[in-house]
Amino acid sequence: METHIQYIIRDPILRVEKAFTTDFPIDHVNGVEGIRMQNIHWEKRQVIVEEIVDPRSWKLDVHGFCFLRAETRLDPEKAYKQKDEVKDAFWHEIEAILHHHFPQYSRIEAFDFTLRKRDPEYPVKNRGYNPEYENPSGGAHADFSQQGGPLVLQHCFQGQDKFWEGKDFDMINVWRPLRGPTDDWPLAMCDYTSISTNDDLVLNDAIKRDLVVECSLMHHSDTHRWHYLKDHDVDTLLVFRNSDSLGKRARGFHAAVCNPNTTGPPRESVEVRLVAFY
């Protein structure tokens, strides 16, 4: 599939300023000269995203992502209307599935439940923050960096620092369509073995309404190899590692991509973020 991915431009300003982004308007901030919502600039780069033929051939510790076949029960309508009521049950399902497939983890705790529903006009019009659901994310990134993981844990598990300080853990995402199968704006994964961690990655402060999270963004490289699963169905879970406490393991850099051949309705998806302790 020939499409495009948003990358961070190799801007000289990033040599003297740390990259940062915000996800809320700053129009109300008056009297502050030069205030910016971000100091990074995105560029569209044409890429080939290869269709995954055998999902079983992808390994979390090699490529940064893998696929699991598992049935999960989540009513799409209740997910939107009764989010707080259904997320705990879905969290428990995902935790149990991960424990079964990754017995090396001694403890797994979910902390985030995100719904995405593509606006029919996205990305021409991006309506910004929506508390009920989000649009796909088209920039190449990993949700957390090595330092960003503990920041999120401090926010989500307040007063429980002693449970993770000094421990080895992974920050994991589990993603699947909310309704499927779907091939609209699929989530593309970059094979970690094709990434230069020294040259291709940028640490970014993602400034949100209630916390600051450090994530990792990507510069373009012709060496990157992108892949997607065609007609992704609800019983196929995409599992990827955003970061780990040691900064040594494969990570799943990802981006939603426009499929020029899609015939289905706008994509809806659900993702769970978890911390998995060794």
UniProtKB/TrEMBL annotation:
<keyword id="KW-0489">Methyltransferase</keyword>
<keyword id="KW-0808">Transferase</keyword>
<dbReference type="InterPro" id="IPR044053">
    <property type="entry name" value="AsaB-like"/>
</dbReference>
<dbReference type="GO" id="GO:0016491">
    <property type="term" value="F:oxidoreductase activity"/>
</dbReference>
<dbReference type="GO" id="GO:0032259">
    <property type="term" value="P:methylation"/>
</dbReference>
<protein>
    <submittedName>
        <fullName>CmcJ-like methyltransferase</fullName>
    </submittedName>
</protein>
<comment type="similarity">
    <text>Belongs to the asaB hydroxylase/desaturase family.</text>
</comment>
<dbReference type="GO" id="GO:0008168">
    <property type="term" value="F:methyltransferase activity"/>
</dbReference>
